[in-house]
Design brief:
Layout: H1 13-27, H2 30-37, H3 41-48, H4 56-83, E1 85-91, E2 94-101, H5 104-114
Antiparallel strand pairs: 1-2
Length: 156
């Protein structure tokens, strides 16, 4: 079967970077921005390398575009939390209307992000408040045998 030949990309690096940054601001996703601007993700990360002295302007603009993209994501979260989304109401496989759904979870995340001191998770343990309970993280390593091989017979 013959392979389809793609058209050569005649855009300059600056044009590719501009297309990518515009999409990054719209979608807040490097993956989506790379796909839509037809720039491989590896190329994006190469441009972001500190050793790539020719792309210093791109690195600076990238940071700004990420902030704008995150704001777009936050705006969408607020819209879904406050205004809701219309979801189809189905009966016997047919759409008979819509119902407005709101996202309490998104609202909680927004509150925690904007006022973390007020909306922080608080856990209180019983005991003397002047003598806090010490917590210790214990790392456990579990080894599993290779299940693709038959177990060896143990001879005693």
């Amino acid at each position: 079967m013959a392979q389809l030949k793609s058209k050569p990309d005649n855009r300059t690096d600056e044009q590719k970077q501009g297309d990518f940054l515009k999409r990054l601001e719209e979608y807040g996703s490097v993956t989506d921005a790379a796909k839509l601007s037809k720039v491989p993700r590896r190329t994006i990360y190469n441009w972001l390398e500190p050793t790539a002295t020719t792309h210093a302007e791109f690195r600076a603009q990238y940071k700004i575009s990420v902030k704008i993209g995150v704001q777009a994501l936050e705006d969408e979260a607020k819209r879904r939390a406050f205004k809701g989304v219309n979801e189809p109401l189905m009966h016997l496989g047919k759409k008979v209307g819509t119902v407005k759904k709101y996202s309490d979870t998104l609202l909680i995340f927004l509150l925690k992000a904007h006022d973390p001191e007020k909306y922080v998770e608080r856990i209180q343990h019983a005991g003397d408040p002047d003598k806090p309970i010490k917590h210790e993280v214990v790392k456990t390593i579990v080894q599993f045998r290779d299940m693709t091989k038959a177990p060896e017979d143990k001879q005693e």
